[in-house]
Amino acid sequence: xxxxxxxxxxxxxxxxxxxxxxxxxxxxxxxxxxxxxxxxxxxxxxxxxxxxxxxxxxxxxxxxxxxxxxxxxxxxxxxxxxxxxxxxxxxxxxxxxxxxxxxxxxxxxxxxxxxxxxxxxxxxxxxxxxxxxxxxxxxxxxxxxxxxxxxxxxxxxxxxxxxxxxxxxxxxxxxxxxxxxxxxxxxxxxxxxxxxxxxxxxxxxxxxxxxxxxxxxxxxxxxxxxxxxxx
Length: 231
Known about the structure:
It contains twelve helices and no strands. The chain is mainly α. Helix 1 (5-17) packs across helix 12 and helix 2 (28-37) packs across helix 3. The longest helix is centred in the middle third of the chain and has 19 residues, at 82-100.
């Protein structure tokens, strides 16, 4: 990997936290479901909803498609916004069946740019969710930009994340890092670990942060706006 500011951040995070082995899922379909369920909710609630889906035998495209909508809604209730998320899951299943004949492998083998467009047409799927599916389910080299990533970029001074679009921030990672899905997945997971451990929205633990020496906020070099987000 070539030397760059984002490479330096990755090295610090990896040395501090070690490999994260993310995304925690047994199948690509579970990744897709988890990416939808994690919208605006804590991952622990997503895990509970996924367990219920498994217990009820609904964590496959065929079984979920055959389930009544009210049954699906009840099963994922713990993940919050369950009615909207159930509609989004049904939208992805409709895409899978209508465009790819129900063949998930065929869908995930679609060229990344094409699949991203198709996913973004599903009600309830935005860039972050689409890219999580592309990266973690389809193994495509696309970097996922979330609230943790925006906060890290803003506080370190690597980018004015509060003023840049999702695409502009994603391009920053794509320019500075080789197009490697394993690297992108590991990096994103490490940023999440940082956000949960130190880089909190309201009261960051700068003294314990592995990026403190690289961070404008941690060095007290001026205020950094807090990007909005759920975390």
